[in-house]
C-alpha cells in the first residue's frame, strides 16, 4: 500500500516537472524570438505610427493655430497661435516628403477626437477661447512628445532620426509657448495627457496561441506520465 502511494506521489511530481519543461521552453522561445526588421527602404511599425501621429497633429493644430492668431483674446495667444500654425505647416510639408520616401500612407482628415476639440475651441470666444486653445493644444503636445522622443532615441534610420529630432524640438517649443500663456490647467492640459500613449512591450508578453499551446502540452505531459506510472503500478502489483 505504501509502495503504491509512494509511486503515485513520485508520478505526480514527475508529471508536474514534465509539464513545466515544455511550457518554459515555449516561454523562452517566444521571449527570445527577435522582431523581424523592416526591409531596406521601409519604415518600422513605430516609425509609421510616428509619421501618422505627426500628420494627425498637423491636420487640427494648423487650423487651430490660425484661428488663435485671429481670435485670440490677448496678443500672447495670437502670437502663440501664429507660431504653432507656421511650424506645423512646415512639418506638414516635411512629413509628406518623408512618408512618400518610405511608402507610408498618411491620413487626410483629423480624428473624431481632434474634430471634437476643434469644435469645442471654435465655439468659444474671449477668455474662454484662449483657455480652451491653450489647454487642448498643450495636452495634445504632451501626448505626442513621448512617441517623438522614443523614435528619436531608438530609430536606426538616419533620415527618420533627423526628422524626429526636428519634431522633438518643435513639440518642446510649443509646450513652452502654450505654458507661457498662463492659461494651461495643470490638472488637465499640462499633465493629464502626458501619459496617454500606452507603450506596450511585446517582447515581454506571450501571444495567445503560445499560451494555449503551452497549456495543451502541459496537460498532455501530465496525463501521459500518470498513465505510464499507473500501468507500471498495475503490472508491479500483478507480478507481486
Rg over alpha carbons = 29 Å
Number of separate domains: 2
Q: Write the CATH architecture name of the largest domain.
A: Up-down Bundle
Annotation field: number of helices: 8
Number of strands: 0
Helix content: over 70%
Strand content: under 5%
User: Distance N terminus to C terminus?
Assistant: 12 Å
CATH superfamily of the largest domain: Ferritin, core subunit, four-helix bundle
Would you tell me which CATH topology of the largest domain applies?
A: Ferritin
Molecular shape: elongated
Task: Label the structural class.
Answer: mainly alpha
Q: H/E element string?
A: HHHHHHHH
CATH class category of the largest domain: Mainly Alpha
Average of per-residue pLDDT values? 78
Q: Largest sheet, if any? A: none
Question: Can you walk me through this structure?
Answer:
The chain is mainly alpha-helical and 240 residues long. It folds into 2 domains: 2-20 and 206-239; 45-204, Ferritin, core subunit, four-helix bundle (Ferritin, Up-down Bundle), CATH 1.20.1260.10. It is built from 8 helices and no strands. The chain has helices at 2-32, 45-71, 75-102, 112-122, 126-154, 158-180, 186-190, 208-239. Helix 1 (2-32) runs antiparallel to helix 8, helix 3 (75-102) packs antiparallel against helix 6 and helix 5 runs antiparallel to helix 6. The model is unreliable at 26-37 and 192-207 (pLDDT under 50).
Amino acid at each position: 500500500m505504501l509502495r503504491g502511494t509512494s509511486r503515485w506521489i513520485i508520478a505526480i511530481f514527475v508529471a508536474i516537472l514534465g509539464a513545466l519543461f515544455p511550457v518554459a521552453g515555449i516561454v523562452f522561445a517566444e521571449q527570445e524570438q527577435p522582431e523581424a526588421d523592416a526591409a531596406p527602404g521601409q519604415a518600422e511599425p513605430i516609425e509609421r505610427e510616428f509619421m501618422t501621429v505627426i500628420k494627425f497633429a498637423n491636420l487640427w493644430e494648423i487650423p487651430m493655430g490660425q484661428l488663435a492668431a485671429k481670435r485670440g483674446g490677448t496678443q500672447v495667444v495670437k502670437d502663440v497661435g501664429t507660431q504653432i500654425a507656421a511650424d506645423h505647416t512646415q512639418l506638414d510639408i516635411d512629413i509628406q516628403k518623408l512618408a512618400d520616401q518610405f511608402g507610408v500612407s498618411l491620413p487626410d482628415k483629423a480624428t473624431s477626437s481632434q474634430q471634437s476639440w476643434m469644435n469645442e475651441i471654435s465655439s468659444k470666444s474671449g477668455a474662454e477661447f484662449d483657455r480652451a486653445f491653450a489647454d487642448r493644444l498643450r495636452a495634445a503636445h504632451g501626448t505626442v512628445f513621448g512617441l517623438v522622443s522614443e523614435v528619436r532615441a531608438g530609430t536606426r534610420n538616419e533620415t527618420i532620426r533627423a526628422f524626429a529630432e526636428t519634431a522633438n524640438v518643435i513639440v518642446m517649443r510649443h509646450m513652452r509657448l502654450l505654458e507661457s500663456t498662463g492659461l494651461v490647467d495643470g490638472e488637465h492640459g499640462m499633465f493629464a495627457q502626458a501619459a496617454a500613449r500606452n507603450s506596450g512591450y511585446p517582447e515581454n508578453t506571450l501571444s495567445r496561441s503560445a499560451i494555449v499551446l503551452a497549456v495543451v502540452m502541459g496537460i498532455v505531459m501530465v496525463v501521459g506520465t500518470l498513465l505510464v506510472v499507473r500501468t507500471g503500478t498495475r503490472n508491479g502489483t500483478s507480478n507481486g
